[in-house]
TrEMBL record:
Signal peptide (from-to): 1-23
Protein keywords: Signal
Bilayer-spanning residue ranges: none
Lineage: Bacteria, Bacillati, Actinomycetota, Actinomycetes, Mycobacteriales
Protein name, entry field: AB hydrolase-1 domain-containing protein
Protein's organism: Nocardia jinanensis
Amino acid sequence: MKTVLAVLARFAVVVVSLGCAVAALPDDFAGADPAPLNPVLVIGGFDADRGILENLRSDLADRGYNAYSMVLPGVPAGSSGTAGIAESATVIADKVADIRRTTGARRVDLVGHSMGGLAQRHYVKFLGGLDSVGTYLDLGTPNDGQPLGFLCAPLFPGCRDIAPDSDFLQQLNTPPVLPPGIPAYHLYSENEGPERSHLPGAVNASVQRFCPGRQVSHRDEPQDAAFQDLIDSALRGGPLATDCPRQFFLSSQRSSLEPDIEHPDIG
């Protein structure tokens, strides 16, 4: 009888020990560190407002990202984005390489506004960027072209490239439009026309899908708080989400289809 009791006692100790070990497992996993965030490069569009780009870059930095920003190159006497878009893509390639050297990161996430999205797509598709980019996100990018490009096409290569059916866009939009396998997002405002064209291979979503009735002009997209929420959730792997924060900036509600002759919202 004593032998039986001894065996049962030992069995109880083993069961209790196993129970404690199993119970400890969730705590062990709960303490695991989340995957580190990739550095992020914010890329402006045609005639980019550096202050608006800095608003987005600063917001991403506040959310824990190692965030950088850049504007596209311009021709002499031209604003940012007036150089050819393929030329702009080479500048993006150099910037990404520099960020990787500086941070030691294997991949950099890209957030390109308007024409910046076209330039980053050329980099990813044709200049080897697929091996260096984590998440691809374009914001307000007219992936099928912006008709306002015809206005300044006689003057600037970037305008010729962004005009619908340009040689540049025909090559860029030859399938596959995006290299397979890259996490990609196309975010846009329903207040603007050309940018509503969907990007094949990407998650396509308007800010109004989450915030019905929200008014966001093309130029203000990078500094709109709801857009910034969506960008953050995309870079973290989704799902896209925002609580539609109040808008505090003075938004220009002029449509990109009604150009300002001095500063058209081409891209």
